[in-house]
Design brief:
Organism: Paracoccus stylophorae
Number of helices: 1
CATH architecture: Beta Barrel
Pfam family, one: Phage_HCP
InterPro entries: Phage_SPP1_head-tail_adaptor, SSP1_head-tail_sf
Radius of gyration: 15 Å
Helix content: under 10%
Protein name: Head-tail adaptor protein
Structural class: mainly beta
CATH class: Mainly Beta
C-alpha cells in the first residue's frame, strides 16, 4: 500500500450509549479512528454483476491496518457523508484493510 495513494481523510465512528447525570440515555456516534484512505472504484465485474453503473452510493476504502478493531456495526464518514460498513477484508497479513460501504440515506 503506497502512502501517496492514501489521499482521502476518513473517520470511523461507533454508536455509543451515553448517560447524563440525570440518568437520561441517548445514542450518539463517537469517533474511534481518524486516518487516511484510498477510495477505489468498483471493478468492471462488480458493475456488471450488481448493475451499479454510475452508482454513487457504494464505495471501497483501503486503509493501513488499524490498531482499533473495526466491525460492520461501525460507520465511516468521508467528505461530509456517512457510510454504513457492509464488509471488511484483510489485505495481506495485517498489511491493510479493505472497507466496503454503502451511503446512508
Amino acid at each position: 500500500m503506497r502512502a501517496g495513494k492514501l489521499q482521502a481523510r476518513i473517520q470511523i465512528e461507533r454508536l455509543e450509549l451515553l448517560v447524563n447525570d440525570n440518568g437520561t440515555a441517548r445514542q450518539r456516534w463517537l469517533p474511534i479512528l481518524t486516518t487516511r484512505a484510498e477510495v477505489k472504484e468498483a471493478s468492471t465485474d462488480e458493475f456488471l454483476l450488481n448493475q451499479i453503473v454510475g452508482d454513487k452510493n457504494r464505495a471501497v476504502f483501503l486503509i493501513r491496518w488499524p490498531v482499533q478493531t473495526i466491525t460492520t456495526a461501525d460507520r465511516l464518514t468521508y467528505a461530509g457523508r456517512a457510510w454504513n460498513i457492509v464488509g471488511l477484508q484483510e489485505i495481506g497479513r495485517r498489511r491493510g484493510l479493505e472497507i466496503r460501504c454503502e451511503a446512508v440515506g
